[in-house]
């Protein structure tokens, strides 16, 4: 039995699908909040619900009793914790959501793990923990104590909380610092998704810092391959705790992202240039040495190929489900 939190989210959906196809029993939990279109979450969840081995519960992880009840009922052997309030800029607008889901919610998961002792707890951290570090590429050996958004601070706190629980209660724990994961069924709040919509609908594409901002784009299938392999890599050190970067190691400018989308869609974007929001960093760039050593794999899909796969899905999905009000 594997518990996946945030199973109706982008990464949670893809991981659940992979494990369900492999025949695992998956317990999915999600509160289906409206940070972005909940219809997309419902639709992902409908795909998963076709599997008889998927057991979904709509609960909020900030509610300690609900979390404890799920652990008591299913006694999961593996816990993959992906539920969180994501997004760096939104943390300037609604900080409460980050404290509730990422701090209190995460603490509730750790408390349940303390009692029910899964074989392995895997949780999502983020590349944002590196802040504006000038040490490129970002290594898990680097210090990460200058976050520039509340989101990043909550993710870094998660790593520290998890270390304490791993140290104190001997819970094998792996934290994954994801770098800009994109692809089919992706998140509408992310640039590649918003840009695709804007290009198709003659809207504007907002570029920060003249489009020079760089991101280490990571295709979803590669991120899932890493997650899948790491589930079986249970840390055995004295303190059984590991952190990995999950990124492609190939930072690409946002200007290049727009050009690639223009090529795929066959239409020019209307660019507007804006100042970089304070919560955003200028560059992300993953050093994946430890990941390769551990699982003999690291993300490989070229951006153009991944974006083509995203675009195919986007057209298919929105032809079937036109965006409301349009
Ligand atoms: N996608 C990326 O590029 C990326 C990069 C770095 C880190 N991450 C992290 O990976 C994880 C998954 O990200 P994603 O892109 O799939 O995001 P997502 O927003 O699509 O998925 C998160 C899911 O968690 C659910 N959720 C949020 N708060 C909850 C709560 N209090 N109780 C129950 N469910 C709750 C949401 O409804 C959502 O379905 C997150 O922890 C995110 O911070 C993602």
TrEMBL record:
Gene3D superfamilies: NAD(P)-binding Rossmann-like Domain, UDP-galactose 4-epimerase, domain 1. Coiled coil: none annotated. Keywords: NAD. Residues 2-247 form the NAD-dependent epimerase/dehydratase domain. It comes from the Bacteria. This is NAD-dependent epimerase/dehydratase family protein.
């Amino acid at each position: 039995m594997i518990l996946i939190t945030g199973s109706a989210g982008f990464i949670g959906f893809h991981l659940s699908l992979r494990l369900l196809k492999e025949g695992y029993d998956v317990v999915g939990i999600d509160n289906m909040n409206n940070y972005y279109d909940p219809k997309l979450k419902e639709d992902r969840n409908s795909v998963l619900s076709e599997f008889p081995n998927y057991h979904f519960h709509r609960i909020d992880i900030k509610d300690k009793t609900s979390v404890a009840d799920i652990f008591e009922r299913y006694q999961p052997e593996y816990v993959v914790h992906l539920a969180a309030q994501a997004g760096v800029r939104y943390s300037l607008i609604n900080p409460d959501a980050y404290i509730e889901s990422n701090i209190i919610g995460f603490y509730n998961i750790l408390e349940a793990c303390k009692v029910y002792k899964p074989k392995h707890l895997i949780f999502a951290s983020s590349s944002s923990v590196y802040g504006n570090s000038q040490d490129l590429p970002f290594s898990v050996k680097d210090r990460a104590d200058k976050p520039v958004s509340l989101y990043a601070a909550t993710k870094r706190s998660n790593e520290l909380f998890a270390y304490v629980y791993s140290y104190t209660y001997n819970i094998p724990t792996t934290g994954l610092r994801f770098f800009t994961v994109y692809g089919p069924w992706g998140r509408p709040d992310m640039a590649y998704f918003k840009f695709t919509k804007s290009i198709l609908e003659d809207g504007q594409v907002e570029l920060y810092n003249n489009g020079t901002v760089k991101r280490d784009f990571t295709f979803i299938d590669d991120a899932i391959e890493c997650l899948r392999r790491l589930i079986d890599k249970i840390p055995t050190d004295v303190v059984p705790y590991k952190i990995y970067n999950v990124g492609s190691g190939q930072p690409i400018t946002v200007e290049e992202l727009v050009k690639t989308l223009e090529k795929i869609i066959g239409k020019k974007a209307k660019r507007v240039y804006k100042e970089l929001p304070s919560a955003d960093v200028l560059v992300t760039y993953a050093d994946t040495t430890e990941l390769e050593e551990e699982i003999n794999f690291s993300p490989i899909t070229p951006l153009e190929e991944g974006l083509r796969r995203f675009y195919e899905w986007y057209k298919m999905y929105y032809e079937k489900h036109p965006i409301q009000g349009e």
